[in-house]
Amino acid sequence: MFGIFKPRTFFNLASTSIFWLKIIFIFSIIIGLGLALVFSPIDYLQKDTVRIMYVHVPSSWISLLIFLIIGICSFISLIFRVKVFSVYAKSVAPIGLVFSLISVVTGSLWGFPTWGTFWSWDGRLTSMFILVLTYILYVLLWSFIKDYNSAEKITNIVGVVGLINIPIIKFSVAWWNSLHQPSSITLTAAPTIHSSMLAPLLIMFFSFSILSLIIFLIRYKYEIINFRVNKK
Q1: What is the mean pLDDT of each run of 10 residues along the chain (232 residues)?
Q2: Do residues 132 and 104 lie in contact, with contact meaning Cβ atoms separated by under 8 Å?
Q3: Secondary structure (H, E, C), the chain
Q4: What is the per-residue pLDDT across 148-201, written as a single tens digit (0 to 9) for each?
Q5: Alpha-carbon gap, residue 7 to 226, rounded angstroms
Q6: Which of 211, 214, 208, 220 is nearest to 60 (CA)?
Q7: What does the buried/exposed string (b/e) look like for 28-60 if buried means 16 or more CB atoms within 10 Å of the residue's CB?
Q8: Can you list the pairs that 102-110 forms with residues at least 24 positions away whose Cβ atoms lie under 8 Å?
Q9: By C-alpha distance, which of 132, 113, 130 is closest to 122?
Q10: CA 36 to CA 199: how far, in whole Å?
């Protein structure tokens, strides 16, 4: 069942699936944007400003999910010496960085009309800022450390240590006083958001996930070739 993780198998899968993933992304993003910008209702307090949610929330979810993937791949590579998982982590890291930046920027734009300020050093925003810095550190280490083995080891350590921040981000609203509202969608309870807003939110998350997968597969094909060159 783990044969799919073999570099050649995954490389061939990436080559054959990108086209169809692009088709899925185009259809899903059109539907998602249509529902988010046209058909979803305005908030009775925030008015049309609430539509920032359809970019901010999915971007936040994806930035957390991607770093979780980086941490797991880094752990496997560091402990079990399965080198291809470092390639997976390296390939997906810039995508997570971009989405974490989108999350912080859109959160600030949403926060100003809602809270009256672009930024507050509360638990959620501070931990998200730390996530952005961790992403930047991870990407820069790969860029500036010329020896591949050294870069791999150091970035694996950053990936594993960075996992500590994920539960802090998740539970920060509950642990500390925060301007940030509690999560409207959790795995342990029914969503507190109306279905007219939930549907476009989930479709946008799906669209961003497909986009992330497309970019990851393109980057993976490049990185696996680079990996083979560095191992010669």
Answers
A1: 60 83 97 93 82 95 97 96 92 98 94 81 91 98 94 97 95 72 62 84 97 95 75 56
A2: yes
A3: CHHHHCHHHHHHHHHHHHHHHHHHHHHHHHHHHHHHHHHCCCECCCEHHHHHHHHHHHHHHHHHHHHHHHHHHHHHHHHHCCCHHHHHHHHHHHHHHHHHHHHHHHHHHHHHHHHCCCCCCCHHHHHHHHHHHHHHHHHHHHHHCCCHHHHHHHHHHHHHHHCCHHHHHHHHHHHCCCCCCCCCCCCCCCCCCCHHHHHHHHHHHHHHHHHHHHHHHHHHHHHHHHHHHHHC
A4: 999 999 999 999 999 999 999 988 877 776 666 666 666 555 666 888 889 999
A5: 12
A6: 208
A7: bbebbbebbeeebeeeeeeeebbbbbbbbbbbb
A8: 102/55, 102/56, 102/59, 102/63, 103/56, 103/59, 103/60, 103/63, 103/128, 104/128, 104/129, 104/132, 106/52, 106/55, 106/56, 106/59, 107/56, 107/60, 109/52, 110/49, 110/52, 110/53, 110/56
A9: 130
A10: 9
Q: Which residues contact 125 (CB under 8 A, 6 or more apart)?
A: 104, 107, 119, 180
In angstroms, the CA 115 to CA 117 distance is: 6
Tokens 């880094």 correspond to 74
Closest CA to 221 of 98, 95, 96, 88: 88
Find out whether 176 and 122 touch, Cβ atoms under 8 Å: yes
**Residue 197 · residue 40 · CB < 8 Å:** yes
